[in-house]
Specification:
The chain has 628 residues and is α+β, with helices and mostly antiparallel strands. It has 23 helices and 18 strands. The protein has a six-stranded mixed β-sheet, sandwiched between helices. The chain has a four-stranded antiparallel β-sheet with strand order 6-7-1-8. Strands 2-5 form a two-stranded antiparallel sheet. Helix 1 packs antiparallel against helix 2, helix 6 packs parallel to helix 9 and helix 9 packs across helix 10. The chain is globular. It starts with a strand and ends in a 9-residue tail after the last helix.
């Protein structure tokens, strides 16, 4: 594998070549003209030390930093992907980061293939000339991948410009690839980054001064952990136990190193002694133990993969029913699918759409949206409703089950109602249930055959109402898209009348009779009752897809329960629970993070809580004092 480095990728882009590549990939002419006009006729000036230069015309380049720049360069270097001519050759590129791959029985043959791809007609060298994108040959990196027990010699790669020597490992898109693909270089890099962050946190959170424990923990969770565990699903194989030992299967060593790093960070957060036990520090700082945190990251990655659309290269592999059953030469993806095949069924998870709706009609909702600014305005608006027909919707969660209901009320006429049971909270969120309630309400309006012209649909969830003003690309928004489709259908069918629909926010517990009625109906639905399927929309007569947010939340809840069980069964946890039954919560952390408590006092309280404090009975263990 030969990693390429392109000099000045964005500044050296030729506008004419970019437009040619866009047309070659059949991008519509209105987009190519827009891009051409956007990048043509640009000027810049230099200003320094009170001097301002005359306008300088910009002939080339893509505006680096522009949101379009990344996508435009993908088309600019797309010709690189056409260089391979058979399955033993490949070129992959992410913006200006590219590499060439050759597969052969010997490294000599593989090097010949790479040299041919570089120098032949239509190869990389010609591409760099026609696209004004010279390579930085001194930064070319060559890796010869082989099994760790392979004894094959790794010769030099002869190129016309220079000789490239194989390296043991190199960095690509933030990940270190090594010649045996055992990820040891990346693991060492992750531990190095974690150590760096642990040192930085200890510098700003000392025992006698520094930031409060709450903010130190927030800094570690939001900044340090994501950087330290970047692509952890690739380089850290899952372990069998929650406290991996030396003989455990998986990346037990690196997991123990990450646990040690978190112990150092938790010590700095709490202001404890270096000898403080890891499990007690994690409990007091409310930090998920490192093995469980890695487990959480694995699950997040797989959940994200399960939402990939059909045109994504990984979609078919992730959603294939036999992928987890591969026995030999398992990849990181096989490990993920095998580990979570009981909790995630990718084919049943809602996908993210590339484009959710026509942008021309996106801002033309077939209804009005009313969200009062305060409680007084809300009550006044509810008391002076002018619409002939009112529809109320609500959702309810009881004993881990979710239900939703909609009620249509008309003065002097009997009301109509619909119930729908969504199964467990592990698969559905309240936000999804509220959107489903709006969809049921619209269905009631569609079934209303009386000469009604004005309708009001009330929901007590602002987020669900505001979803109709978003791009509707989130996985849970498929119900909002269906509701919009139905709303447009109703608007068209009633176009000859003075039809008008308002979706209004109505807060709970404000004495509105319709809210009380629908609240009771939603609780009935949560218990398991669903209206006759013939009364429901065709869209709701088949099982709803699982919401990825609910999947992640349910998994996080299971990790919390598992952590609680492990902690309370431990010796320290058993003792600490006797004095404080709220252990494994952030209450203690909040209590010692008050602004009127000094950092030194916080450290003493933490040390007392951890039972590791420099008193004589403790210091005697290290022969620093006599016990009294």
């Amino acid at each position: 594998m030969l990693f390429l480095d392109i000099k000045g990728a964005f500044p050296n882009t030729i506008l004419e070549r970019l437009v040619h590549n866009l047309r070659k990939r059949r991008i519509p002419s209105k987009y190519t003209k827009f891009i051409s006009n956007m990048l043509h006729g640009r000027v810049t000036t230099l200003k320094f030390n009170g001097y301002t230069s005359a306008p300088i015309h910009i002939d080339n380049s893509i505006s680096q930093g522009d949101p379009l720049s990344m996508a435009l360069y993908q088309y600019y270097n797309a010709d690189l992907l056409n260089i391979p001519s058979n399955k033993d050759k490949d070129v992959m590129a992410f913006v200006d980061d590219s590499f060439m791959l050759a597969i052969a029985d010997t490294f000599e043959e593989a090097h010949e293939i790479l040299a041919d791809m570089m120098g032949r007609e239509g190869g990389v060298a010609e591409w760099t000339t026609t696209h004004n994108s010279p390579l930085e040959y001194s930064k070319l990196m060559l890796i010869d991948f082989a099994h760790c027990q392979s004894q094959k010699s790794r010769p030099l790669l002869q190129l016309p410009q220079r000789v490239v020597e194989p390296v043991v490992s190199t960095k690509y898109l933030g990940v270190f690839f090594d010649q045996n693909l055992n990820w040891k270089a990346q693991q060492a890099h992750a531990i190095k980054k974690g150590t760096k962050w642990a040192v930085q946190l200890r510098r700003i959170a000392k025992q006698t001064w520094g930031i409060t424990p709450k903010y130190a923990r927030q800094l570690y969770i939001s900044i340090a952990i994501p950087r330290m565990l970047y692509t952890v699903d690739l380089w850290c194989a899952p372990t069998q136990g929650d406290q991996p030992g030396a003989k455990d299967i998986g990346s037990a060593k690196v997991t123990r190193q990450l646990t040690t790093l978190q112990q150092a960070v938790a010590t700095a957060i709490m202001g404890g002694l270096q000898t403080s036990p890891t499990d007690a520090l994690d409990a007091c700082a409310f930090l998920l133990p490192a093995p469980l945190n890695i487990n959480k990251r694995y699950h997040m990655v797989l959940t994200r993969m399960a939402t990939l659309p059909k045109d994504h290269p990984l979609h078919s592999t992730v959603n294939h029913k036999n992928t987890p059953d591969v026995k030999h030469h398992q990849t990181a993806l096989h490990h993920l699918l095998d580990r979570y095949q009981d909790s995630i069924v990718p084919i049943r998870v809602k996908k993210i759409l590339v484009a959710s709706q026509d942008p021309i009609i996106a801002a033309k909702n077939p209804f009005k949206i009313s969200i009062p600014i305060d409680r007084e305005s809300l009550i006044k608006e509810a008391e002076n409703v002018a619409e002939e027909v009112q529809v109320f919707t609500d959702s309810s969660a009881m004993e881990g089950k979710v239900g939703v209901a909609a009620v249509l009320l008309r003065a002097g006429k009997p009301g109509c109602k619909l119930h729908f049971h969504l199964s467990s909270e592990d698969k559905h969120t309240v936000h999804k249930a509220e959107l489903l309630g709006i969809l049921l309400g619209l269905h009631l309006i569609n079934m209303e055959r009386r000469n009604s012209t004005t309708f009001a649909l009330g929901s007590d969830n602002q987020a669900a109402i505001k979803a109709f003003q978003s791009n509707l690309r989130s996985p849970g928004h498929h119900l909002a898209r269906e509701a919009l489709r139905l709303a447009h259908q109703i608007h068209y069918s009633k176009r000859k009348t003075k039809y008008e629909l308002t979706i209004r926010w109505m807060a709970r517990h404000e004495g509105i009779e319709g809210n009380k009625t629908v609240d009771r109906k939603a609780k009935i639905a949560a218990e398991g009752f669903t209206s006759d399927p013939t009364l429901l929309l065709q869209y709701l007569r088949k099982p709803l897809l699982t919401n990825p947010s609910a999947v992640k939340r349910a998994h996080n809840d299971r990790l919390k329960v598992k952590w609680t069980s492990i902690w309370r069964k431990s010796k320290r946890g058993h003792i600490m629970v006797k004095s404080n039954k709220t252990t494994l919560s952030n209450r203690f952390l909040k209590a010692i993070s008050l602004t009127n408590i000094t950092r030194s006092t916080t450290s003493l309280i933490s040390q007392l809580r951890l039972t590791h404090i420099p008193l004589n009975s403790y210091l005697k263990q290290f022969k620093r004092a006599d016990s009294k």
